Amino acid sequence: xxxxxETKVGALTAIAIVLMILGFNFLxxxxxxxTGNFIYAEYPDAKGLMVSNPVYxxxxxxxxxxxxxxxxxxxxxxHVAIKLKGNYNIPTxxxxxxxxxxxxxxxxxxxxxxxxxxxxxxxxxxxxNDAGLLGELTNKIGPVADQLRVTTHTLDSVxxxxxxxxxxxxxxxLQSVIANxxxxxxxxxxxxxxxQAMLNAQSGSIAKSMDNLNSFTKNLxxxxxxxxxxxxxxxxxxxxxxxxxxEGSVNKLKAAIDKVNGLIxxxxxxxxxxxxxxxxxxxxxxxxNTVRSANILLDDLRTHPKRYVNISVFGKKDKSGPLTxxxxxxxxx
Length: 333
Hints:
By secondary structure, this protein is α/β, with parallel strands linked by helices. The protein has helices spanning 5-27, 132-165, 168-198, 205-222, 224-243, 246-268, 273-279, 281-303, and strands at 37-43, 54-57, 60-70, 78-84, 95-99, 107-111, 126-128. It has 8 helices and 7 strands; from the N terminus they run H-E-E-E-E-E-E-E-H-H-H-H-H-H-H.
């Protein structure tokens, strides 16, 4: 039987269409026959979730979205079938949420629970409606925006009341007060700069004073033993001084001084020989002459012994004249 060219073209076209459908489904993660491990989830909002979107557990891709369909005509519940790539132990109390991605496609994230029993193929997993990053930001900004709107309205009312209360003079006074406050603020800024310079860790006066104080305290700490010894010696000295009879010693010293003064008075008086010697020039001259005469006599006796002692042992009597002045002691007789 001969097959016409039209039949061949039609058959090839049908085969190409079937292969294209199968390839398209394969690329989307779907097969012609519904085989594998499936778990199911229900959401009130699909958030743009599409077939073949990934499913993650701890950042690891464990499957993909196999199909999405609504279970009622009001679209209040979206039924999502999840196809797992393998047999994973997913606890029964795990939760699946749709994670929105502003820069990409949404995905499903499964947070594992702590149950010891695991989901089986065909079981339903718990779900939670996660608002996502933009949703949380919108929910937080909404109340703030409402409060800001109310605050702006209140501020506008306050400004209107201020404009109605203050006249031109009051406004000028208020401007003067503000100008004074500005000058005061500038002065405070200058003072803070000066204070900062004082507190500077490198060249500030307070820092230098603290360095000197630290050096002083360090020296005290290093010489602590010496200071303790000095204080102990000082304590012993004060103890000895407290035990000493200072008053008796002073009295004895005064008595000794009185005796010395008496001796000095007697020496200065003309009643005694020492006083006459010190005050009477005639007595001094006579005493000097007597000593000079005694010296001449001794020198003459030593020089001319025969004149005073007539003994034959010495020979004839010396008839030379007597000495009239002492001999020079530096020369031999």
